[in-house]
Structure formats: C-alpha cells, structure tokens
C-alpha cells in the first residue's frame, strides 16, 4: 500500500507542477479560457478524449458492465459518437465564430435575455459534470486508501480546483495529455487484461456469466435510445465540449483529431464494460455495485501496479472534473457576471476568470459532498441541458420563425418538466428527457408562431 500511495502522490505532484506551468502561459483571457486557440492534433485529441471520459464513463461504465455485461458500453458509445458528430458537422462553423460560450450563439440569434436564461441552465449542467467526477474521485480514494468519503472529496477535488484555478485551459490541456496517456496505459492495457486473467480468462467469463452479458442490446433498447437522446445530443450543446473545440488551431485539426477522440471513447467504453464483467465473476455479491471498479482494482493488482491504475482512474476523473469546472466558471464570468454589473474585460487579464474558477470549485466540492451516485448525477445534468437547451439552439440555427419568447419558454418549460419527472420517476427513468423535449418543442413552436416580431435571419453556423 505504501508503494501505491507513493505512485499516486507522484502523479498528484506532476498535476500540480503542470498546473503551475500552465499559469505562466495563461496571461490573457483567451489563453485562460481557450488556450490561445492554438492546440495541435495530439494535444487536441488528448484533451477532448480526457474531457469526455470521466467518472460516469469510467466508474459508471464498470458498474454497468457489472450489472448488464458488454452492453454497458453504450453510455461511452453515445458520448463518443457525439464527439464524432460535433467534429464532423459543427467544428468548422464554431471555429469561425471566435466566441467562448454556447450561450453567445443564442444571443446572436435572439437577444441578451436568451443568453442569460440559457446560461443559468448551462451553469447547473457544468457544475454537475464537475461534481460527478469529483464524487467518483472520492469513491476511489475512500475504498483504496480507507479514508472518510468527505476527506477524499476535499483532498482529491481540492487538487483539481487548485490546478484549474491557477492555469485555466492551458493547465487543463497539459494535465489532460498526461492523464490521457496514464488512463490509456493503466486502465485499457493493464487493468482490463489483468482483471480478465484474474477471473480465469475469457473462457471462464463465458462460463460464469449468463448469455445476456455478451449481448450488445441486453441493457434494453429504451435505455440505449435514452442514452443517445441525453448524451449524444448533450455533447452537441455542452459548454465543456464547445470550449475544447474552440482550442483547435485549425478546422482540419478539430475535424480529424476530434473524430479520433470519439472513436477512442467507444473503445474505452468496451474496455470498462469488460472490467465490470470480470468484477462480476470475481466479486459476485458486492453490497454496493458503485464500488465495483475500486474493488476489482484492490483484489486484482499487485502493489505498485495498483498505484498506477489508481493514478489512471484519478486521471480520467480529474480531467472531466476540471473541464466541468472551467465550463462553469466561463459561463458564470462571461454570461452572468456582466448581467450583475460586472465588468467585461475583453481580451484583458484572466484575473476575474481565476476568481470565478475558485468560486465554482468551492461550489463543486459542496455538491459532491451531498450527492452520491455518479450516473444519476450525470443523467440529471444532461436531462436539464438537453431538455432545456437543445430545441432553442437548433431553432436558432435552422428555423427563421424562431422567436426570443419561444426560446425562453422552451428553456424554462423543458428544463422544469425534465426536473419534475426526475423527482417523480427517479433519476434513472427514461421519462424526464422524453417529456422535457416534447414540452420544449411544443412551447417553442407555438409561442414562436404566436409572437409578433420582426423577422430575423437564422444564425448562420455553416
């Protein structure tokens, strides 16, 4: 255990050092928020994949593999295909806009009120994304190092808040590259084969698990469709993803390297589902299936190697936590602070953004201390985002009759209905996103058609 702890501490020290180095490069707001819009293909691929693959994709997909078998990969598949979609169809027009937030597109098409209304939804989404991976960090550290959950949250999450605050996107990019390499080696090339071998090999998995564990649709078509509605479309409108797109040096880098990152996400999901299946054979009676990942790490790996895999898990979780945190602080500073009378500093100092990153980091730690289930937390974030913002954003791009009143009503009613059905049917239910989107579409179309307004050409993103 001492050797494992040393490896993890070495990883943490490297993250803080990279965060400090990133601070030296983040001199302007554009440096801090979008890395100067200057990332090449290797950095772009690594930071995009690391952003998407966090707590739910790692801890959550292992849990889904434990419960459902190979079909648990669909969560990561929906995310990966979403990355491919945004890379092929939206990256080019997005890079031409030279903006910082999703909500700025809504302001261009509607008015500032639409931007501010959507910013509130985006802020909640980004905070929940950050909190989801912070919760997973706490879960891993609690099980493997025997520390109280709240202590694990404050230590692990505090490290993320620290390096994110000081260096912004440059710190995130530098740490993401290291995290991407560590998680690839530690989880895909070490934990997956060793856990399967410890379970007796592939033949032993086939013999011990039911046939449904090897069916790609065993999780259920309703769940697969829901994952696509929530995660595939959520990727298209998530601030954390758009902010990564804005960092690309060219349209070709965003298209090619982004698509490669999406393919990697799908393969990563398969690897995590297989780890979950091995855990089911090794630990068939787990009291808490959320601990499947940490438990299989604990029993399948020797000292030292275990530390590498724990560092790999923390790498996956910290990358997404930091992405959500920066997305939340960017939305708060760029969209909401000016509304409250704050000063817009154009391309000046990153000081205000650092202050907001610290504040959003403290909020993230608070949320992580009171929420426990990573997939439920992620589902809540995407239900609110897609239910409230997908329809107004698509309307802004493609429908000339769209109005500000229709957009704001769709945001409000879509997100509120999604929230109401999450409270009524539970966070894991399929109904919140279905009813949220249905009400969002209906209110958007009806109120837009009834609104008396001067015709405004749809915002051009192509």
Task: Write up this protein.
- GO terms for molecular function: symporter activity.
- Its main location: membrane.
- InterPro entries: Na/Glc_symporter_sf, Na/solute_symporter, Sodium:Solute_Symporter.
- This is Sodium/proline symporter.
- The chain is mainly alpha-helical.
- It has one domain: Up-down Bundle (Sodium/glucose cotransporter), CATH 1.20.1730.10.
- α5 (about 75-90) runs parallel beside α11 (about 220-235) and α9 (about 150-200) packs across α16 (about 350-370).
- Helices cover about 80% and strands about 0% of the residues.
- It is globular, with a radius of gyration of 21 Å.
A few lines on this structure:
The protein is mostly helical and 462 residues long.
CATH class: Mainly Alpha
Radius of gyration: 21 Å
Average of pLDDT? 87
How do the helices and strands follow one another from N- to C-terminus? HHHHHHHHHHHHHHHHHHH
CATH superfamily: Sodium/glucose cotransporter
Overall form:
globular
Strand content: under 5%
CATH topology: the name is Sodium/glucose cotransporter
Total of helices: 19
What CATH architecture would you give? Up-down Bundle
Please tag this protein with its features:
mainly alpha; globular; 462 residues; Sodium/glucose cotransporter; Na/solute_symporter
């Amino acid at each position: 255990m001492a050797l494992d702890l040393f490896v993890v501490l070495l990883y943490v020290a490297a993250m803080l050092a990279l965060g400090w180095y990133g601070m030296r490069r983040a001199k302007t707001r554009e440096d801090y928020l979008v890395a100067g819009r200057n990332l090449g293909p290797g950095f772009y691929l690594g930071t995009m994949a690391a952003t998407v693959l966090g707590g739910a994709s790692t801890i959550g997909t292992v849990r889904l593999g434990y419960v459902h078998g190979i079909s648990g990969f669909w969560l990561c598949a929906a995310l990966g295909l979403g990355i491919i979609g945004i890379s092929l169809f939206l990256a080019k027009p997005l890079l031409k806009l030279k903006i910082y937030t999703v909500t700025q597109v809504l302001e261009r098409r509607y008015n500032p009120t639409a931007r501010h209304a959507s910013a509130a939804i985006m802020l909640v989404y980004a905070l929940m994304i950050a909190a989801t991976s912070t919760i997973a960090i706490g879960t891993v550290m609690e099980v493997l190092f025997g520390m109280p959950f709240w202590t694990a949250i404050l230590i692990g999450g505090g490290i993320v808040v620290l390096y994110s605050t000081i260096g912004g996107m440059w710190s995130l990019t530098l740490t993401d590259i290291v995290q991407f390499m560590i998680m690839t080696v530690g989880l895909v090339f070490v934990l997956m084969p060793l856990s399967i071998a410890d379970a007796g090999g592939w033949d032993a998995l086939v013999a011990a698990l039911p046939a449904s564990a090897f069916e790609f649709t065993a999780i259920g078509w309703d769940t697969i469709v829901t994952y696509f509605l929530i995660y595939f479309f959520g990727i298209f409108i998530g601030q954390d993803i758009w902010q990564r797109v804005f960092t690309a040096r060219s349209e070709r880098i965003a298209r090619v390297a982004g698509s490669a990152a999406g393919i990697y996400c799908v393969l990563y999901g398969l690897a995590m589902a297989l780890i979950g299946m091995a855990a089911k054979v090794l630990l068939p009676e787990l009291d808490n299936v959320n601990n499947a990942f940490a438990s299989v790490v604990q029993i399948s790996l020797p000292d030292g190697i275990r530390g590498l895999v724990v560092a790999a898990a923390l790498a996956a979780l910290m990358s997404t936590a930091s992405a959500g945190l920066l997305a939340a602080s960017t939305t708060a500073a760029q969209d909401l602070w000016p509304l409250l009378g704050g000063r817009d500093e154009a391309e000046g100092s990153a000081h205000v953004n650092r202050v907001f990153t610290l504040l959003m980091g403290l909020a993230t730690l608070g949320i992580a201390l009171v929420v426990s289930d990573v997939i439920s937390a992620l589902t809540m974030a995407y239900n609110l985002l897609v239910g409230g913002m997908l329809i107004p954003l698509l309307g802004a791009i493609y429908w000339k009759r769209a109005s500000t009143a229709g957009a704001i009503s769709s945001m409000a009613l879509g997100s509120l209905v999604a929230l109401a059905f999450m409270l009524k049917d539970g966070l894991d239910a399929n109904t919140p996103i279905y009813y949220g989107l249905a009400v969002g579409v209906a209110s958007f179309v009806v109120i837009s058609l009834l609104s008396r307004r001067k015709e405004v050409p749809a915002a051009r993103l192509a």
